[in-house]
Inverse folding.
């Protein structure tokens, strides 16, 4: 089994629990719950198609369910058993034999992991997680720029140290102000209101950009693009299952306090993508992952 250096997280668990130790008791290899939820996830492909990510099909990417003692790889109608590739319970992607696979914990193991955390595991959250991780497999297969950074992180050639940024009081304050501006713009009913709020956001973005090093900037841009887009797919799948209001409450709540680490960029990236789509519904046409979300928004604002 291999240790993994980079964890991609969806929203079921607090981030610290995703890299849980692999010494938990293995679950029985029945997987009836997981197989049924996987079938449900596949049935949502027409809805995923409407999101505009051309060529993204969940069935094209293997989903490896880790039970603690075995991987069970789901793809289409097939289930393949094998020795575990990774050494823990993860929501992540990993390259296996030259192909990216999505890795998720088995249902029972995920229940154990969230016990006592206040997080809730439902069929809808599990299905949304499958789409989140499956989207990562597609991203890394489809976009060379994202894949190159990912491989650099995995090999240790690239390192992201956000600790210094998180310790900067001015950055923390500006980031929270940015989140409030983005949230207000999403809620705005008219286009002029959206634009006015985004011009306010642009001023804040320029201020906090000046507080970042090049390494910080690369890290934030990478996580907002990579995780913000996966978070968007996840939230839209959840909305399809549970309704727009439930999805809004789950995904668009803005925290009053600053959270260290990279998880906050999932939400900031998602909010920026929602606003990019508000200004340009066809933004995926000609989309390049080499562009940053800030750059895309600024260009739409004429800045």
């Amino acid at each position: 089994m291999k240790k993994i250096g980079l964890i991609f997280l969806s929203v079921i668990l607090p981030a610290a629990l995703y890299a849980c130790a692999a010494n938990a008791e293995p679950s029985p290899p029945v997987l009836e719950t997981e197989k049924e939820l996987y079938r449900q996830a596949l049935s949502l492909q027409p809805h995923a198609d409407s999101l505009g990510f051309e060529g993204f099909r969940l069935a094209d990417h293997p989903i490896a369910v880790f039970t603690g003692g075995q991987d069970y790889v789901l793809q289409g109608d097939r289930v393949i058993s094998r020795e575990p590739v990774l050494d823990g319970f993860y929501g992540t992607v990993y390259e296996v034999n030259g192909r990216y696979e999505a890795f998720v914990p088995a249902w029972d193991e995920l229940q154990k992991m969230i016990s006592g955390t206040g997080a809730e595991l439902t069929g809808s959250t599990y299905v949304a997680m499958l789409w989140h991780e499956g989207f990562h497999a597609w991203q890394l297969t489809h976009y060379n720029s994202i894949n190159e950074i990912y491989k650099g992180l995995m090999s240790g050639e690239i390192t992201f140290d956000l600790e210094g940024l998180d310790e900067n009081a001015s950055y923390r304050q500006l980031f929270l102000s940015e989140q409030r501006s983005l949230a207000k713009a999403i809620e705005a009913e008219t286009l002029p209101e959206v634009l006015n709020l985004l011009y306010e956001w642009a001023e804040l973005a320029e201020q906090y950009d000046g507080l970042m090093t090049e390494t910080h900037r690369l890290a934030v841009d990478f996580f907002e693009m990579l995780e913000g887009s996966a978070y968007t797919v996840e939230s839209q799948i959840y909305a399809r299952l549970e309704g727009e209001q439930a999805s809004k409450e789950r995904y668009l709540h803005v925290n009053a306090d600053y959270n260290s680490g990279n998880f906050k960029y999932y939400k900031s990236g998602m909010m920026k993508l929602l606003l990019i789509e508000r200004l340009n519904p066809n933004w995926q046409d000609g989309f390049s992952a080499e562009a940053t979300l800030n750059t895309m928004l600024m260009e739409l604002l004429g800045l």
